[in-house]
Amino acid sequence: MLTKKDVTILAIESSCDETAAAVVVNGRDVLSDEISSQIDIHTLYGGVVPEIASRKHTERINQVVRKSMETAGKSFDDIDAIAVTCGPGLVGALLIGVSAAKALAFGTGKPLIGVHHIEGHISANFIADKTLEPPFVCLVVSGGHTNLVAVKGYGEYEILGTTRDDAAGEAFDKVARAIGLGYPGGPKIDKAAKQGNPHAIEFPRGKVADSVYDFTFSGIKSSVLNYLNERDMKHESVNVYDVAASFQQAVVDVLVSHTVAAADEYHFTKLALAGGVASNSALRAQMKEACEAKGITFYCPPPILCTDNAAMIGCAAYYEYLKGHESSFDLNAIPNLQLGDKIYE
Amino acid sequence: MKILAIETSGKVCGTALLDGDTLVAEYNVQYKKTHSQSLVPMMDEIKQMVGLELGTVDAIALTKGPGSFTGIRIGAATAKGLGLALDRPLIPVPTVDAIAYNLYGTGGLVCPIMDARRSQVYTGTYEFTEAESGKTSVMRTIRPQCVISIEETVDALNELNRDVIFPGDGVPVYRDRIAEMAEFGYSFAPSHLALQRAAATAELAMQYWKESGDKCFVDADSFRPEYLRVSQAERERAEGIDTSKVVKRGKTNQ
User: Fold this and answer.
1) Tell me, what's the ipTM?
2) Nearest CB to A99 within list B81, B84, B248
3) Closest Cα of chain A to B35: distance in Å?
């Protein structure tokens, strides 16, 4: 039963290759969560092609929004605000969601709320566990992002660490391609690794000299490629399962050690995962284990909320709405938007 | 019939409100701000200025392409969102036709040329029928919009051997080449008629509606822009070229 104080938000997300829309009540009750994935077409190219992604978003946006409204059983009259991911992401892809959201806000007279994509991923944890409240530390890992974030309050973040080169998921994709597993690399390596020995090959655990919490994955990736080359030169066969498992172990070790160290130093008693790579089974298992050993409560959204989705954007927008934050009609798509950049009036 | 028009296919960002035979408002900007930043604020300004109740708009007109891929999509996504919000249909207009319509009534041919890069232009050829006295003349398409080289464009005009007006953002790029090749009389359109204008898009949409009624409507959900070109990745894949360079980045989702 909705009370008068309930806040219903229609949210749109189109930052990469998922066209998504959701209707979310009070930030945490997801009435609908539509996701139209383009993965099949991008798989043909071994990765996301921005121009194709933008074209597909344009074709799908209305159907996805309409379906989310129908599934939620809502009309535009029931909506209190329209939220949209405005960055970071592929600019052409972002522009579709931003343009459509602005037109919807203009056409319906509802307020517009731009949302930072990473804030959305972090907020997926609020949907997954309705009791979770800040402060906590959150590791956001996906194909495009690797961020270690101190979540001090709703909408209050401090970036503790970020990647200096490849995103974690990007490294998965590159290594998967090198060992012939194909695209998308994350789930393929996860699966192959289950049949391999994670300690068969010792790949380096990337460290950044001047920062405790920053990440580097290009070294791990290069050493995998070197290993494959050496084997090839010697005409020795490669155990793909062992390479997948050992590579994954190297990445997971770094992700877990950095995140747990941050929780220790900043005295966080709660730790959360977010982003597409948070679906990786080894990362989930080892982060959970590490948290249990330290007495830290571990949170991780189900895979459907780890992938790009609009429910998480609706959740993040709710907390901005409560603060009276609203974006103006000149809101733009910002491919390299930083957490904390001004997107509200 | 009240039409709200959106024009973002090229350098100009524009919007216009046409109510029957009355052009209530038109707002065109050619400036360094992106169309994404400009378009909805411009529509909002018109709305406020003329006290427009959006619910009274019957259809949303837009140029469907060709043009800047990103520009076309900003217009398309905005028109679709507005169509969804207001439950109204779209009236898509070919971009080259809309530019040509700026030159209403000219006795010669109109051949817009839009710079399509890769040594090509988006172009088409049009003429205006002689108007019955007291009526509006009709724009007839001689060559529908297409993407070809400037050489092919001028060769075809040489065959027709009639006076030609060239509007379009391809003029500064190709005026010398036209001078070398043209065997016909030609001129270049002045700035107020040279590029896309929202009012021309609106009026052409209105003409469609007068001619064919609801048949010119396309529902907002199923509308797709007309790029006249596949993406670089699709083209190179079809040609057997390694497409890994156009892949922006990988992505890991389960």
Assistant:
1) 0.95
2) B81
3) 9
